[in-house]
From TrEMBL:
Residues 1-17 form the signal peptide. Residues 22-52, 326-364 are annotated as: Disordered. Residues 463-595 form the Bacterial transcriptional activator domain. InterPro entries: AfsR-DnrI-RedD_regulator, BTAD, TPR-like_helical_dom_sf, WH-like_DNA-bd_sf. The keyword Signal applies. This is BTAD domain-containing putative transcriptional regulator.
Length: 604
């Protein structure tokens, strides 16, 4: 699974340095704050827009700029890792077989996650792939060092957006390692994420949602989090019992306190029991003014340039909580008749292939597009170099959607998270240069455009992906010679779709194609004349997807049936290590398990 490059060897270590990511992101002198009353907050639901032109760059001030906010580089990498883990879990949980096949889990990731992934692809990290072990900062230390020890209030137009950023980044640390306990009042959570507050599910042990501020303060006071080395206590109730992690402090997000509660919170900060983040003025300490872009300054200290905080609007925060698994993804909705185009189908209609007579009428030129493996375009066998990266991506996108796509859909896929109106010209330029290069080499127009909808002309161009889907359709409907038909599916798959490319829109298409190949192996294994031949086919399927739990169950059971018990145990151990190396912990549960000789062993 191609994880983001900087995380390949250091996914766990990076989590520690990414929690609040304020000390690692010093900012230039603050911009003049917007004229708002002291202690005021942004209107809930107001987008946290930053720089005037969001499309000018996606990498700003050491972080990733989106239409929904700004993320420090380390936080963006954790988001990309969380998205990669979503697809790994889906691959692990898929159960091969044609009967009752359900591909509902092939829905793309939310738009914000896709935008973060695309930004990291376009702006790869300049630092080495591996981060030295000594560079890994303990989670609690990173968090505390970024916040005033006496707590902090957040005011100004970016206050709520910064609090959402804190909420998401602290929860992200729980993806790969024990995280800082996070306590938030129910009212504060509703203020931050609106109706999504009620939809949060599978609450991680380090997230506690308390009914009132009094309950939150009482919880922190009674929790032995200030004493390191304590065992984690099993929560008895989700909403009123803290998960004790042994970390030296918790993060507490609350509404503006007053009176005795404010004094008790100040005491918790002084004792090192909690970092308090207040949505509003903090009477016991500093109140940072946060602008819409996340820049901070202290009104009591003119000229002081505070850290730039991660800022997220409500939609972006909800998207990222969905990717982390804390919110159920939205169910598919019916097409909106008011939209100018329909959503792209996951299983496209395969165009009719060009015949010899048709090619002869076009001068006999043959334009081939290879999509399975490294993308390559050739004219009469000679490779045609595509210089513009966006043009190559657009070409592969059209090959993956042979029925065509509206320009708006292409812009949303190729440049997610950025305003469509500012990118349409970029798409037109890329397609124009692509059409011109192909026309110069072949004399043919291979991209049709009707009513701002683009498609590859099947009369002039052919792709291996189209041939693959044709082969799958033939195998699924074959009445005779079914083994030969399914073997043809396997033979037509040399490598995954656009191998080596990390375009976010590829994931559903890549996984759907992979599943067709896995199904072909399983069907042939079921019809194999001998157990040994069936085993070889299932082992080949594992090479197609080494993360699938069901395939490993089948192979281990086949090995056990052949008396090769030690080999089966070794396969199980190898599989478990592979999942752990990818960031799938034993604590996770998605219903998949490897079953060997009647015993069930978790595969996470």
């Amino acid at each position: 699974m191609p994880l983001p490059t900087p995380l390949q060897a250091t996914a766990s270590g990076m989590a520690g340095a990414a929690v609040f990511s304020v000390t690692a992101n010093p900012t230039s002198p603050p911009q003049p704050p917007a004229p708002v009353a002291a202690g005021s907050l942004e209107t809930p639901g107001t987008p946290a827009t930053a720089e005037a032109d969001w499309s000018s760059s996606v990498q700003v001030d050491g972080g990733i700029l989106l239409s929904g906010g700004w993320l420090p580089r380390e936080v963006a990498e954790q988001v990309a890792l969380a998205g990669a883990l979503v697809w790994l879990r889906r691959r692990r949980a898929y159960r091969p077989g044609l009967a009752g096949r359900d591909d509902a889990d092939l829905s793309p990731l939310p738009a914000t996650a896709a935008a973060v992934q695309a930004a990291l692809v376009d702006h790869p990290a300049s630092r080495p792939n591996a981060v030295p072990a000594e560079a890994s900062v303990p989670v609690a230390t990173a968090t505390i060092s970024g916040l005033p020890a006496a707590g902090v209030g957040l005011i100004g137009p970016g206050a709520l957006a910064a609090a959402r950023g804190l909420l998401v980044t602290v929860l992200l640390t729980g993806q790969n390692r024990p995280a800082v306990p996070l306590v938030v009042t129910r009212a504060a959570l509703s203020t931050l994420v609106g109706t999504a507050a009620e939809a949060i599910r599978h609450r991680p042990p380090h997230l506690q949602v308390m009914p009132t501020l009094h309950d939150a303060v009482k919880l922190i006071e009674s929790s032995p989090t200030r004493h390191a080395g304590l065992e984690r206590e099993k929560p008895q109730r989700r909403e009123n019992v803290a998960a004790v992690t042994g970390e030296p402090a918790a993060v507490l997000i609350v509404d503006s306190p007053s009176g005795a509660l404010a004094q008790r919170l100040a005491g918790l900060c002084a004792a090192g029991a909690s970092n308090v983040v207040v949505l509003g003025q903090w009477p016991a300490g500093a109140s940072w003014h946060v602008d819409a872009a996340g820049h901070t300054h202290d009104p009591r200290r003119p000229g002081w340039a505070g850290p730039r905080l991660c800022v997220l609007d409500t939609v972006a925060a909800t998207d990222l909580l969905t990717v982390m698994g804390h919110i159920d993804p939205a169910p598919p909705t019916a097409p909106d008749p008011q939209r100018s185009h329909r959503p792209l189908p996951l299983s496209p209609r395969i165009p009719r292939q060009a015949s010899r007579d048709t090619r002869a009428g076009s001068g006999g030129r043959r334009i081939q597009l290879r999509v399975l493996g490294e993308p390559m375009l050739s004219v009469d066998g000679a490779t045609l170099t595509i210089r513009r990266a966006a043009a190559l991506q657009a070409l592969v996108f059209l090959a993956a959607h042979p029925a065509g796509a509206h320009s708006g859909q292409m812009v949303e896929a190729l440049w997610p998270g950025l305003p469509r109106h500012s990118l349409t010209g970029r798409l037109y330029t890329a397609l124009s240069e692509l059409r011109g290069a192909i026309r110069a080499a072949s004399g043919l127009d291979v991209i049709d455009n009707a009513d701002d909808r683009y498609r590859l002309n099947p009369t002039h161009v052919d792709t291996d992906l189209w041939r693959f889907h044709t082969t799958v359709q033939h195998a699924a409907t074959a009445v005779t010679d079914r083994p030969l038909a399914w073997q043809a599916v396997i033979d037509a798959y040399p490598a995954e779709v656009a191998a080596g490319r990390a375009w976010p829109w590829l994931d559903p298409i890549r996984e759907a194609v992979r599943r067709h190949v896995i199904d072909a192996h399983v069907v042939l294994a079921a019809a194999a004349p001998t157990p040994r031949q069936a085993l070889h086919l299932l082992q080949a399927a594992i090479r197609v997807d080494p993360y699938n739990a069901d395939l490993h169950t089948r192979v281990m059971n086949a090995l056990a049936a052949l008396g090769e018990h030690q080999t089966a145990v070794e396969l199980h151990d190898t599989y478990t290590r592979r999942l752990a190396a990818a960031g799938l912990d034993a604590d996770e549960a998605d219903g998949t398990a490897v079953r060997l000789r009647g015993a069930t062993t978790p595969t996470q």
